[in-house]
Design brief:
CATH topology of the largest domain: Purple Acid Phosphatase, chain A, domain 2
Number of domains: 3
Helix content: 40-55%
CATH architecture of the largest domain: 4-Layer Sandwich
Radius of gyration: 26 Å
CATH class of the largest domain: Alpha Beta
Shape: globular
Largest sheet: 6 strands, mixed
Length: 441
């Protein structure tokens, strides 16, 4: 229902269900016992109704793309009253939703991850929640696409043993290459220049970071449990957006597909390593090139006897067709931010109605003026304001949702109310019509 608080419908349903069950019990009891049950039931309902109002008033704070901007991330969490000066949770029962892209571009991404992980149990103790979602950069890192990892991020994983670890890895890599010496691979030359380039491409901390993001690593195991989309009542939260043309039944099914594809990729990678087609510490682009060259070598020699290997290579080379890498998928889609509203409005309205949602909150696409922008008659809120100033020149921000009121918070200015609930009123006017801006991943 437009303007209704995001949890109000759920708590109302629960209250009505309790009333229904108590009436049923009252009908089957004898007069004396039934009277007692009915009076007790009424008392319980009176207790439940304030609880329902409290749940309906629960505060949600959504923060978009952090990209390793640790000081800015801390600042906006403090500004919105979620953490104190010691970076401890003081948000009570508030819900913090981080819509993905904590990683890449910035050099302090690990500190940002650690902070979120530390806040999760702290919030839970106060009946609050911290919900980190998958962004395209989380998915990229889980798959070994490391094009946007900052050197400082690798350094955060380095130790006094990193140089030794890298030398051992180089010896392992050269052994792998020697087993493919007749296959005409061209990733690195086998001379000193090739060794130097390999060392430069694998800075100290590279291998420790890789291990931390693999399926059994600290961050990899944690992130693989994160969803791509969160629905709280009538509000959807996600990183990129939901394309009206994307076919899916509901949020649960969409999350299942994302998790299944990540698990399938992990299995695919392990199988390719087991067959020594790729090396376990390759980046995704290196592995893709390795497989392409291996496939060409096999075709040239007519050596296609291993159908399993052929299938594995085909699957890796077809990753662009997977949902987790699709421009129409939930962690990549930019249409809600860049397409003219008139082109998508009917589709967006129908999609939200089908999902029993009224609002959608997304990041991923930096706003040109670095402010939170509502679109589609204040039903879609775009909250990526380029938090990492060194990269984007933007500012830290957060979207607060409480009692149907949507408020934009900024680290460097006063909050701005974007939408207020109006009983019986139609949706407010659409947000500013900014010109589309081309975005990098």
């Amino acid at each position: 229902m437009p303007g209704r608080n995001y949890l109000q419908s759920e708590t109302e349903k629960a209250r009505v269900a309790v009333q229904r069950e108590l009436r049923r019990f009252a009908r089957v009891m004898d007069t004396k016992t039934g009277s007692f049950v009915w009076r007790t039931g009424c008392f319980l309902i009176l207790l439940l109704m304030p609880a329902a109002r409290t749940a309906g008033q629960e505060r949600v704070v959504a923060v978009a793309d952090v990209h390793g901007a640790y000081p800015e991330f801390v600042a906006i969490l403090q500004r919105t009253g979620l953490i104190d000066a010691n970076r401890q949770w003081i948000g009570g029962s508030s819900v913090l939703v981080q819509t993905g892209d904590v990683l890449d571009r910035g050099k302090r991404a690990r500190e940002c991850l650690d902070l979120i992980m530390e806040l999760e149990p702290q919030a839970k103790k106060q009946n609050g929640r911290v919900v980190p979602l998958l962004g395209n950069h989380e998915v990229m890192n889980l798959m070994g696409d490391l094009r946007y990892v900052a050197d400082g991020d690798y350094a955060a994983f380095a130790s006094d043993q990193s140089a030794k670890r890298r030398d051992e890895a180089y010896r392992e890599y050269t052994k792998f290459v020697s087993e493919h010496s007749a296959h005409h691979h061209t990733l690195y030359s086998d001379d000193e220049a090739g060794r130097q380039k390999w060392m430069a491409d694998h800075p100290l901390g590279f291998f420790e970071r890789h291990d931390a993001f693999d399926p059994l690593g600290l961050y990899g195991r944690w992130m693989r449990n994160h969803d791509a989309v969160l629905q709280l009542g009538d509000v959807l939260f996600l990183h990129g957006g939901l394309s009206p043309t994307l076919s899916f039944k509901n949020v649960g099914e969409l999350n299942q597909r994302v998790h299944a594809e990540i698990a399938d990729f992990d299995s695919l990678w392990q199988s390719l390593c087991a067959k020594k087609i790729i090396w376990r510490y390759m980046k995704l682009d290196e592995a893709t090139r390795q497989v392409q060259e291996e496939w060409m070598w096999m075709q040239a020699r007519g050596e296609l006897e291993d159908p399993e290997a052929v299938e594995l290579m085909h699957r890796l080379l077809g990753l662009q067709n997977w949902l987790i890498l699709s421009p129409e998928g939930p962690v990549w889609y930019r249409g809600l931010a860049l397409e003219p509203e008139a082109n998508l409005k009917s589709g967006v309205d129908a999609m939200l109605a089908r999902l029993n949602a009224h609002y959608l909150v997304a990041g991923h696409t930096v706003r040109p003026k670095f402010d939170i922008v509502p679109r589609f008659d204040n039903r879609v809120f775009l909250i990526d304001t380029g938090m990492n100033r060194e990269v984007f020149g933007g500012r830290a921000s957060a979207l607060e949702i409480q009692n149907g009121r949507f408020t934009a918070w900024y680290a460097d200015r006063e909050p701005v109310v974007l939408r207020v609930p109006q009983a019986g009123a139609t949706s407010p006017a659409a947000g500013s019509g900014e010109a589309p801006q081309k975005q990098s991943p």
